[in-house]
UniProtKB/TrEMBL annotation:
Signal peptide: none
Record field: catalytic activity: L-methionyl-[protein] + [thioredoxin]-disulfide + H2O = L-methionyl-(R)-S-oxide-[protein] + [thioredoxin]-dithiol
Name the record gives this protein: peptide-methionine (R)-S-oxide reductase
InterPro entries listed in its UniProt record: Met_Sox_Rdtase_MsrB (IPR028427), Met_Sox_Rdtase_MsrB_dom (IPR002579), Mss4-like_sf (IPR011057)
Known EC number: 1.8.4.12
Pfam families xref list: SelR (PF01641)
UniProtKB keywords: Oxidoreductase
Top EC class, one word: oxidoreductase
Source species: Dyella acidiphila
Annotated family: Belongs to the MsrB Met sulfoxide reductase family.
MF GO annotations: peptide-methionine (R)-S-oxide reductase activity
Limits of the MsrB domain: 76-198
Length: 201
């Protein structure tokens, strides 16, 4: 099959691949040569990743226990539809919002923060404090398994990046200059989170 017929088949729907809404489609590495002509790699289905996260109630924040969640995997185009431009830059390109511009810089009421991309529970407002940095800060996540820590060596610094376990979106960084009882400061980007006020006080 020549390149033109291959592209028409794939993108024209002639060889549609049935996959669930939570299964990612990716192209494997570079294609090979056939009769001296480069050919594109075939699309394959990547099995959806099942996660065991901690779930929490929006009513009063009580822990519902472990729950099985399918990791949210989207294309850049789909993320652009779901997120604002600023949120896309922060969450999908490891960016940082301008200090003192976010909506969640200081605690206002009882509630919890969920990922703006996939609604995974991230932080309880009871652990939030005013760090004076211009970004919402917490002394611990709502559940360790709901966030992912990784080494970040960008900008000539060594930091610990924090991502959402439910969709791999970048949230911010954690530092060791926070208050008791943990001594940690989870410095998050407001645009990466949505605040949910408890329905029951």
């Amino acid at each position: 099959m020549d390149r033109r017929r291959f592209l028409l088949t794939v993108f024209g729907g002639g060889a549609a691949l049935a996959v669930s809404s939570v299964t990612a489609i990716r192209l494997l590495g570079p294609g090979g040569k056939r009769n001296g002509v480069m050919t594109a790699a075939a699309p394959v289905a990547t099995p959806a990743q099942d996660l065991l996260l901690e779930c929490f109630s929006d009513d009063d924040g009580h822990q519902l226990g472990p729950c099985h969640v399918t990791k949210l995997v989207l294309t850049d185009a789909q993320w652009h539809l779901r997120l604002s431009d600023v949120a896309f830059t922060v969450m999908r390109r490891d960016g940082t919002e301008v200090a003192f511009t976010g909506a969640h810089e200081k605690p206002r009421s009882k509630g919890l923060y969920r990922c703006a991309g996939c609604s995974t529970a991230l932080f309880d407002a009871a652990t939030q404090f005013d760090s004076g940095t211009g970004w919402p800060s917490f002394w611990q996540p709502i559940a360790k398994q709901n966030v992912i820590e990784s080494r970040d060596s960008s900008f000539g610094m060594i930091r610990t990046a924090i991502n959402c376990a439910g969709c791999d979106s970048h949230l911010g960084h954690v530092f060791d200059d926070g208050p008791a009882p943990t001594g940690l400061r989870y410095c998050m980007n407001s645009v990466a989170m949505e605040f949910v006020a408890f329905r029951v006080s």
